[in-house]
Amino acid sequence: MRRTALLICLILNLWPAAALAQIPKSYKELKYPPLNRITPPEPARFELANGMAIYLIEDHELPTISAAALIRVGSRWEPAGKAGLATIAGSVMRTGGSQKFPGDRLDEELDRLGATVETSIGEDSGRAVISVLKEDIERGLIILADILQHPAFPEDKIELAKIQQRDRIARRNDNPNAIVFREFRRIIYGKDSPYARQPEYDTINSITRQDLIAFHREFFQPESVILAVWGDFATARMRALIEKAFGDWPRGGRPKPPVPPVEPGARNRAGIYQIVKEDMPNSWVAMGFLAGRRDDPDYFALEVMNEILGGGFASRLFNKVRTEQGLAYTVGSSWQAGWDRPGIFTAVGSTKTETTVTILQSMRNEIERMAQSGVTEEELARAKDSILKGFAFEFDSTAKIAQRLITYEYYGYPRDYLQRYRDNIEKVTKEDVARVARQYLKPDQLAILVLGKEKGFEPPLSTLGKVTPVDIRIPPPTRP
Fold first, then answer.
1. 37 pLDDT exceeds 70?
2. Are 370 and 310 in contact (CB under 8 A)?
3. Count of Cβ atoms closer than 10 Å to residue 138 Cβ
4. What pLDDT digit, counting tens, does each position of 277-296 carry?
5. Which domains, and CATH codes, for the chain?
6. 3-state DSSP: the chain helix, strand, coil percent, rounded to 5?
7. DSSP string across 67-103
8. Cα(10)–Cα(14) distance, rounded to whole angstroms?
9. How far is CA 465 from CA 273, 349, 446, in A?
10. Which of 120, 351, 352, 476 has the fewest CB atoms within 10 Å of its CB?
């Protein structure tokens, strides 16, 4: 008995030391198993006679069904003098309901079914999503079809949406991060570009019910809609229900709207821009230029390059500017490639007023170092691993997979783009990153924006070049 007790004591004393001996001294020594390859479910795809495209994915985990419609409509196609029209139309399609289901009745019907419906119109697409219990899907599809085809656009709901838009205009300069993001887009694309213009009191006040009706008539037609349905159903029966709900929607026959071009001047916005906001306790800075599209051959190498430069806690910007120099509260970069038009590359940061110029110089130095010196094998491996680990979350629900599929079709990308994305990231080499860094990162072509106090910089902002002021004052309404 005594020998047994001594043996137990010996084991307990040795166990912590043995365990500690296996703990790596640095996070760099941590080893993770490789990610398993994920094969998303294969959808059933078909088209109705009216040209509406349908994707179906069965998922019997829960007794629910969801449907999402992606519509070829967006604020980039609204009249310039009616900025805000698309947003209001997308909102009132839900709040105002449809001819068969007016707003209040629609709310009651959804409450009775325990269902939800949401509609919205963004910059380059519109969405309508419904979620119901599987036994109510027939009713849910009828509701969704009527909202898409016959929105009521009642005057009271339009006025409520306009009030909400006016409130957003009044508060749009409250958030410094939002200001920098918005104004940097306006610098790059041009303030009158459909990718950068913003609603004002006058544009909101000018919007009428007839504008909403005309906007809907111009863009809502079955051949401009892609519908994804996922959940607990049998494909054959779901196809019949969709035919019943949407099959009698007549073709519109209107051509696909062309993608508005980005003005040529967007490729040359180099300069120093300043927004003065004296109530700012610190400075927010951004620098960048017009980027590319997701279908560019260099897109994948640029994704990896950006991850190394400023994509996370292990990035060069974070390590140099924040950790080593202590200049930034936050810092990072993003290569925002567009689906069907050029996006924007941006490096952003926040710092004390007096170190504003210093952080700009440091960030620009890191961009220049990336362009001139390339990257290490360790940086390459870590960046690709980080991207691919995040990529796995694109597959973690049927809803994400279904909505990705309709997004790819909407923009003309192959259905297996998710799989191609992983394969192409894995193929990126150190030489690829060095090549795209040299080709695309041009420090002398950076547009640089500073938001903060007018003075107090050491050295002054003018040491970087001529400073162009940016006015963010909100124009008062000139008409009711």
1. no
2. no
3. 15
4. 999 999 999 999 999 999 99
5. 44-246 (3.30.830.10), 267-469 (3.30.830.10)
6. 50, 15, 35
7. EEEEES--GGGS-GGGTTHHHHHHHHHHHSBBSSSBH
8. 6
9. 10, 20, 12
10. 476
